[in-house]
Amino acid sequence: MNLGVPVLRMVSAFARIKVDCSSEQSPTTRTRSVNGLETFKSSCDVDDEGSKHNTSHSTLHHLTQLSIASKMDQNIIRRRGVGTQGLDEKTALKGYTLIAPLTSKNVYLIDNNGKVAHQWDLPHRVGRHARLLPNGNLAVGMKDPNAPAPFLFFNKYGGGIYQELDPQGNVVNEHRDPLGHHDCYFAGDGHFYYAGLQALTKEQAAALPGGVPGTEAPDGKVYSDTIREVKDGKLVWEWKVAEKLDPKVFPLQHHYPREHWPLINAIYPMADGNILASMRSVSAVVIIEKSTGDIIWHLDSTVVAQQHCANELPNGNILIFDNGAFRHRESFQWSRAIEVDRATKKIVWQWHAPSKEAFYTPFMGSAQRLPNGNTLLCESAFGRVVEINTDGDMCWEYVCPYFSQYPEKEARDFFPSNSNALFRAYKYAPEEIPWLQ
Questions:
Q1: What is the pLDDT of residue 65?
Q2: What Pfam families does its record include (predicted)?
Q3: Which of 178, 187, 291, 418 is 20 to 30 A from 69, comparing alpha carbons?
């Protein structure tokens, strides 16, 4: 009985062993990598499929014993591999991807090989994401360490500090709102939009249908959202959920906590002057007529499921990262990106993994259409960024290598592990970052 193939597979997967297939007894050395995982090196690779398996059983036994004695890295995401995991140079956009690990105080521009091309060091933890502006500056949200947390989960997705930084890290513009959260869209010249909290009255909270009973914020409160437009530090426009969103049309989903309704996680100023917004806890994407504040268009939970990152494409269609959490008529959960025709509300393009369950993030996530027609997706909870070419094939895969715990105890109570999560990722062609050359 030949046990070579399964043994080699096991050893290769768990100890990253390299074996000299040309000798009976290949010398091996044990080393420790940066993440603390012990590995073994020798002079010849054994691939994951066990294609070279004429190594002696005594050598395999020796290596297997060493791998069992070694302490495995208990972080599953990191153990599976970080950095660039795959690259099709012919179809991937040649450019740089911006990532902002949520547990860190750093923002990185990386090339297709995962090499850091530029880095910003922030005074506070990242408060969701960062984006490059047309003027070359960095727009970033940070977590205000002194801001209150009206409910426990706000410790994770609250922001509060919005800055525009030049490439050297100098502050060009800043705005603060302790109840700001999730998205901030910088339009440039000190002009931007962001989402904030506003408590409902007791009567409004009691009239809100849906959600898990008894899951209100402390003192029985329910918080709604506002969208605020600020220019040069002054509020110039505001839209309030409590005044404009009908709770009967947009009820909380039955499995969602009642502390936050409708949980706006994306804001996008559209070409026609109206505002596109994504609302997670009601599974809806809406267009707000800016002049009246009325909802003039929306997708509901028959199309999207706790989606994120709704944005308008140059052709007028809407690109959405559809998380797929508690999707109707599905027995398991999977994520996808969809492009929706605004006029018909029909899905005209979509991508999901060939094995649907292989690409899924229950929260966060982003989708960006690139200059070459490819689409960049962020599987946020697991720090994975993938690029999909126009044929629907994955042409770049990168896993964020920066792991750490949330610095706030309250956030660690929810997410105690070392995380590499990213709220979003954005990719740019070299000509969009002339100062980097």
A1: 54
A2: Arylsulfotran_2 (PF14269)
A3: 418
